[in-house]
Every structure is written in structure tokens, then in C-alpha cells.
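Please fill in the sequence for the structure shown.

STRUCTURE ENCODING:
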């Protein structure tokens, strides 16, 4: 059987050949209903258009580079990828994912991208980028969009979507202090990399909010690796006395810590209150009080801004901050009173 042609797809979809071509190469120029119909029929006929030919014709690669600093299996990273794909896939764009773990790796990426010119835009999640690296992209007309990036406006990002980490941490601190907790531990990560992660502002805001109320939290660093929660438990049990509340940088620490505390004979929240940050997988199921953010939604906002920048060089609201929300469940209660 002969392979289907672009004319076969056009005939079946009852559209012009140019409409079929645009559905693949310039999806922003075709209505959603028409594009979906054309792509469905093309799939039924097992028809595909040459990606390289499309790139040559449009001057675009139909590829978005995503720089991510964390493991792809983790809730935040997976949610970002899911949100981006929901927008980009329908517009004919692919995601190329680059895991960046150091300034050196980041610099290598920005050194090579303008030479290769193999992406129409760059998205960066949760770490900073040097102004000269952004300027290098700007000279080649490649927009750079941040998700939870540090100081995106002043650094020179084309656009960015950020969770208000300072507000979220204030909500967490005020919740614990409002429950009369004064003996508080904050558990954070401190990965051995040379990038400035957005969670730093989360940590600093929590400390500042506590100190404003005369409370000085103790910081425990959860190391990398599978035994990190056991290490945190060891540090807690080595203290002269247990805290009445533990605030965690992320739910990925809070949820396993909650189980480990209970295995060691502590009742949550009667003995110790635990609060997380993210409202990620299983937070609702285990009753974790946490600060909610929605990375999938933020990624969709960032993806739409990216498409605007690629198509028009501008977007209506380039920099957007999404408010955090405190979700109170059963893992926090009023501080216990000593007998």
C-alpha cells in the first residue's frame, strides 16, 4: 500500500494542503478544532511531515529546551513537565530536557545553544542564570522563561512565573507560632552544587518570620541519598530536647519524616506538629498540613508566555507571581504543655 500524502490528509479533512502544512509547522495559525482534526486524520493515515523541512521553512526548530535541576521522578519536576507538555504538544513543539547540576554545566549549555541554535526558547526551573548568559540568548533572538527562578525581572529573563515563596513561608511560620509553638526545627536540603535554588528564599523567609516573633528555629540539613530521613531523625534525637514543631522545606521530606517519627514512638501532632510545603502526592492522604503550590499550572502559564514570545516577541503579562495557600490538615495542633 502506498504511503499517504499531504494531499490525502487534506482531502479527508476537507481543508487545503497549506492548512495541513500549517497544522504541523505553524500551529498558531490554525484554529484548534481544525488542527486537532488534521492531526487526527494524519495519524489515522500514518502520515508525518518532515520535521527538518518544517524547521527550514519556518525558521524554527519546533523544540523547547527545559533546564531542570532536580530528579525528573520527583513531584515538582514531573508536574512541571506535565504542565509544559499539555500546552506545547498541541502546538507541535517537543521538549528537550537538560538536567543541570552545577554552574559549569549551566555555562556549557549557554555556550553551545547559540551556536547550535537547536531550540526556539529556553525554560529554566528553580535556579538562577547569569545575566551574560541571558544576554547571549537575547542576541540570537531566543527567549528565556523562568519558573520559580531567583530575581527573574532584574536578571533579564524574557518572562517568568513564580510561586510567592516568601508569602508561603510566612503562612507556615505564622501558623505554627499561632499554635503557640516556640521550639521549632526547620529541615532543609543543602545539595552540594553551585546553583542558587529558589528554596533558599523559602528558608530565609521562614526564619525571618519566626525571628520577628522572637522565635529562633534550629536548622537541620537533610543530606542527599536514600538515608536522609534517618539522618534527620538521628539529629532530632541527638538534641537536648525534642522540638514541639518541625517545618519542612518540602513535602518530600515531611511525609517520610512523619512516618519515621511515629515509628520512633512520637505522636503527630500531639507530641510534635509537622508542616510541609508543596501539597504534593499523598499529602492529603496522610493528613499533612502544608503550603500549596501548583507547578503544573505555573508551567502552563509559562508555556503560554513562551509561545507568545516565539510568535510575537512579546507577551501581555511577562512576569507573574502566583500566591501560595496554607492547607491545614491533621499534622499540626497546639503546642503541648509541659507537665
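FILLED IN BY: designer on duty
SEQUENCE:
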Amino acid at each position: 500500500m502506498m504511503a499517504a500524502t499531504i494531499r490525502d490528509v487534506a482531502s479527508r479533512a476537507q481543508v487545503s494542503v497549506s492548512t495541513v502544512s500549517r497544522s504541523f509547522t505553524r500551529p498558531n495559525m490554525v484554529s484548534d478544532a481544525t488542527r486537532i482534526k488534521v492531526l487526527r486524520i494524519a495519524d489515522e493515515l500514518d502520515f508525518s511531515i518532515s520535521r527538518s523541512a518544517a524547521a527550514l521553512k519556518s525558521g524554527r526548530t519546533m523544540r523547547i529546551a527545559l533546564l531542570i535541576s532536580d530528579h525528573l521522578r520527583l513531584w515538582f519536576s514531573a508536574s512541571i513537565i506535565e504542565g509544559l507538555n499539555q500546552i506545547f504538544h498541541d502546538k507541535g513543539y517537543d521538549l528537550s530536557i537538560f538536567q543541570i547540576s552545577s554552574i559549569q554545566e549551566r555555562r556549557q549549555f549557554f555556550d553551545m545553544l547559540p551556536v547550535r541554535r537547536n531550540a526556539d526558547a529556553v525554560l529554566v526551573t528553580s535556579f538562577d542564570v547569569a545575566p551574560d548568559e541571558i544576554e547571549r540568548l537575547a542576541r540570537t533572538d531566543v527567549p528565556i522563561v523562568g519558573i520559580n527562578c531567583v530575581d527573574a525581572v532584574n536578571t533579564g529573563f524574557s518572562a517568568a512565573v513564580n510561586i510567592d515563596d516568601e508569602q508561603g513561608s510566612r503562612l507556615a511560620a505564622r501558623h505554627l507560632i499561632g499554635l503557640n509553638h516556640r521550639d521549632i526545627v526547620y529541615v532543609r536540603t543543602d545539595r552540594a552544587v553551585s546553583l542558587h535554588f529558589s528554596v533558599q528564599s523559602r528558608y530565609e523567609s521562614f526564619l525571618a518570620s519566626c525571628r520577628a516573633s522572637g522565635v529562633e528555629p534550629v536548622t537541620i540539613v537533610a543530606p542527599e541519598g536514600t538515608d536522609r530521613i534517618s539522618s534527620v531523625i538521628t539529629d532530632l534525637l541527638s538534641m537536648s530536647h525534642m522540638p514541639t514543631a518541625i517545618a519542612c522545606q518540602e513535602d518530600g521530606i515531611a511525609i517520610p519524616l512523619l512516618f519515621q517519627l511515629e515509628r520512633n514512638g512520637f505522636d503527630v501532632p500531639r507530641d510534635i506538629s509537622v508542616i510541609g510545603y508543596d501539597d504534593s502526592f499523598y499529602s492529603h492522604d496522610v493528613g499533612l498540613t502544608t503550603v500549596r503550590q501548583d507547578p503544573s499550572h505555573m508551567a502552563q502559564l509559562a508555556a503560554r508566555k513562551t509561545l507568545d514570545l516565539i510568535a510575537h516577541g512579546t507577551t501581555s503579562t511577562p512576569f507573574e507571581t502566583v500566591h501560595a495557600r496554607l492547607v491545614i490538615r491533621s499534622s499540626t495542633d497546639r503546642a503541648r504543655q509541659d507537665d
